[in-house]
Each structure stands twice: as structure tokens, then as C-alpha cells.
What we know:
29% strand; seven-stranded antiparallel sheet; Glycosyl_Hydrolase_31; single chain; eight-stranded parallel sheet
Amino acid sequence: MSKQLTWRQGHHVLTVEPWGADSVRVRAGLHRIEPDLPGALLPPPATPATVDGAGLVNGRLRVEISDDGLLTAWRTDTGAELLREEPAHFWWPGARHFEAAGGGTYRIEQRFHAHDGERFYGLGQHGHGRLDQKGMVLELRQRNGEVSIPFTVSSRGYGLLWNNPALGRVELAANGTRWVADRARQIDYWLTAGEPADVLRRYADVTGPAPELPAWASGLWQSKLRYTSQQELLDVAREYARRDLPLSVIVVDYLHWKHLGDWDWDAAAWPDPRAMAGELKALGVELVVSVWPSVSPLSANYAAMRDAGLLAATDHGPAVHADWPDGPTDAPLAVAFYDATDPRARDFLWDRVHQHYGRAGIRAFWLDACEPETRPGHLHNLNLAAGPGAEVANLYPREHTRGAYEHLRAQGETEVLSLVRSAWAGSQRYGAALWSGDIPATFDALAMSVRAGLNTAMSGIPWWTTDIGGFHGGDPNDPDYRELLVRWFQFGVFCPLLRLHGHREPRADRAGVGVGGGPNEPWSYGPGVYPILERLIRLRERLRPYLHEQLRTGLPLMRPLLLEFPHDPAAWDVEDAFLFGRDLLVAPVTTPATTHREVYLPAGATWTHTDTGTTFPGGRHVTVAAPLAQIPVFLRDNAQIPIAQEE
């Protein structure tokens, strides 16, 4: 008997088939189901699913299709309804709606019933400052700091991936849940049943697990906008060594090139990259270099890429996508993007990267502005090898990261990580480490970052970081900003990557683009702050073995309390604290002039406050001291983790 459900009415066809443990893939279209459209799902492992009449059972998930074509899903172990389709109107439109958009594509809607009290987590990284996203309308498109990953974990015991890279939106309203694709060929989503941790593991099974975090990546990353020369950067690394202050990574930011799209050094400022990388390696420091997808008409590669059809096209107008300062004039130039969805273009770019960076000993890259950052943001106007922008634009950042991953692996690198500003479903399997984009230097942005990081973790991206201190602004001589910097650094120590970056005062600009800023090293913030940062950096060093061990569990390092304690209802309400792995509860301070912090300790464990040694039973709120030099941290049960400073 076939392990697939099929329903037809007129030209409308719906299929449901098992796709991994406790999971199904649902597709619906007009006339046919297209088998090979762009998406995130990998081929499924075999599962012992069964079909009986109008129902399919796969482990803990049962799906049925009614006579009129409406789908409902239940948990087999509890009998609880997970979700069900619901029409918008008794006649038209139905739960699944196709409105012709030309060329065999449609504006598509998929509607589900809204359950009171349901909560949604994941869906990428957003700046709205909420963990539970019920009640939100979220665009399915990429922007600087707004990362669309159309995967959500529901409090009702399921996860859903909208397996469609089209531009659109998801509405998590009180009167219904609606997924919308502006231009697509069919509905395609994946559904799984289980507790939140099970859902995340199943999602990794079908979209690809992250590789192992490189050993070099878990220490401190030093960065700023920007080190303008080889000498300036080496002076910073040497000062770390002189102070015997641990440093793992230092970053060469943008504008180290002559022209966008050269993917090469400006030799006037960077005369000997191989010697620079060699000296850094001798100091135990990894050199990471910024690679942008933009291609200026002045670059050495523009004409060859244009003539070979390797640049992203447009549906209307010339194939240029942003204005950017490039060359000897302050007037911005119209620049193109390479087409990351074209394997030939990925080969071309990474061949150039290997020539100019790889042969200097550089093996890790910062893939900035990879949404891509079109200005204005008319992603609908893109025309890519994978399809029209409205249909596939959300693929772009993942395919850009894929290019780095596949070419580095082909060159023999076994540990691959790329720092990225945008991602899509499946980016994790290509070693994507997402950061929160160009956010402001404020306490509000710090509080937002806690929620953004946790939702990123619930989106299947286990490697995440922020610009410690925020990106836009921050005066190292301002006492108020120094307080923010310390509080943000405390949070950063308990993020998957610890990264110091930002465009500090005094700032320099050119044609509206920052080209240089003030100092951003730990010693830049004065003698009152430096000892605090030094202790935090050394704490991070002690935590690194634990960090790597926890990532090997298949769960993210930053975990909302609900992930470890799904049966504690109060744990689902906590948005301002999290677990760092299984055994550390971290409560960042995200408000100014704060000296105490209330923390909820989940039921089902005991918790030891690391600063006082006091042990508390779970299932209660406690208030602990949180002076500037302290972040509240609690050990779970009898965990043995080296939090205390070594004597």
C-alpha cells in the first residue's frame, strides 16, 4: 500500500507523505505536484508510516483529509489536535487559495484555525522584542537585522516549516493563522509532532544539522568598524598578546579592497596579507575577512561576470541593485550582485576568494550584506537563476553561505564557519553563524537581542551572536555607554559566539556609509571597565569545553527555559533569561542603573546562585544582587562547571 495520501477535486490536488520520524510533508497545487522546486527539505529517511483510508500515521503524528479536502493533524500518543485547516469563508476563498500571478505561478494562501493560548517561537530573527510571536504579522523577506526563517515551534506540540522561499508573510492572528506567498507554484510545508526539543531535532534531520563548531570560533572575536590597515590590525593583536589577554579571532571588515567585487586586498593598506595571517596564527588568532556579494562596474571581475551571465538580473531596468561609494569619488555608484543561486557564479566568486585570501592562509569569512542588501529594497524585481525574485529571493543568503561551505570543504577544510547577516531554512547545514545586524547601541536593543537570539535558536540556527555594545554609535568615554557595554559583554559571554564589534564614536562617513570609527578594544573603555571585561573573557575561556560539549547534543546552546522544562507552564512565560546549554541559567541585566534582578527558576531542578553559593528549589522567583560587575547565573542541580574565577 502506498504511504501517501492524495485528495483531488477538479484541478486541485493535495498530497501528504511521511518525511522523517513523526513528520509529514504536505503539498498542494493546481493540476499537479511539482517534485523539484527550490526549498529546504532534504530527501527523507525511511519511516514506518501507515495509511488507512483518509488518514496517515507516522509515529506520534496522524493526519487526516476530510471529504471536502480539509486537513487536520493530531498527536497519536495524547489524541490532542495539533492544527487544522480552516477556510476564510464558507464558499470562497478556501483554506488553500491560488490566485494566478502569471507564468504558472500564483499568489498563494494557506489558512489554519487559531487556537486560544497557542504560542509560536522561531521564525528567524526579528527586532520586535518578543519571544512568543502570537499576534504578530511577519514579513517573509530578508533585511538587515530582520532574518526570515519560515519555521515555527508551537506550544501545542508541533513544528511547521513553510518550505517555500517566496516573498510573503505569516499572520499569527486571533482569528486564524495564514501563510502567504506573493508568487509561488504550489503549497509546500513540513509538519512534525513532539516536545520542543524533539521538534528541533526532527527539523535538523530533514534540513541538515549544523557541522561541529570549529574549535577556534568559541573564544573572543575582536572587531570594529574598521581596521584600516595591516599595521593597525596587527598592533591590536600584539596588544592582546602583551596583556596576555585571550583572543581567538580578529576581523578585517569591509573596504579593505579597492573596488567592490575585486575580492582582493588594497595593497596600499594591506601590503603582505600572508605575513599578517602567519603572525596572527603564531599568536593563536584566526583571521576572518569580509566578503560582500556586491560587484562594482569598476571591479576587475565585473565585465567577465556580466558577459558570462553570473550577475543577478532584474525584471525591469538595468541589472544594478544598490548605490555604493566605490572608487575615487564620493558620488555613489550603481553596483550589481553576483547570482548566488547560480552554481557557476558561486564557483567564480570562490575561485577569486581562494586566489586572494585562501592562499594567504585565510579560511573563514564574514559574509556581510548577504540579504542581499538591495537599495531600494525591491527584491521582487530580482531575476535569479533559481527563478523570479518574488518566488525565490529568500534563498539568496543560504546559497551564498553554501558557496563558501562547499568550496572550503573541497579545498580540504574540515572546520567551516561563515559569519552571516542573513539566513534561510537550511543555512545551518552550511556552517552559518548568524549575527543580529546593524542594531543601535541602546539598552532596548540589548533586551531585544535576548529575544532575537532565543528565537534564532528555535529556528534551527545554533550559532548566533550580536555586536557587543550595539553597532550604531557608542562613545567609549561616556560612562553611560560603558555601563551598556559591560552589560552587553556579560550577555555575550553566554552567546554561542562572543564578538566585540561596532561603529564607535568618533565616526567617519563617506556618502552616508561608515568608513571608520573609534576604538573598540577592551582597554578602550577605561581602567574601571577593563578588569570587568578581562574577568569575563577569562570566564569564557573556562566555559569553552562545556560550550562545545553542549552543542554536540543536537540542541542549540541558547535555550529558552521552555526547551528544557516544557512541562512547567511558567517556563513558557520567561523571555528575559535563558539556559546556556543544559546546566547554566543566565539572567542578563538589560536595564540601566540596575543593582538587583528577579529571576524565575524552573520547576523540576534545584538552582545554585554562582555568586553566593545559595541553592534554591525550582518553581519560584528569586531576587538576587546584580551590581555592574555581576550577571546572575545559576547552576542546575549538581552540575560541575568552572564558573568561579581561578585563584
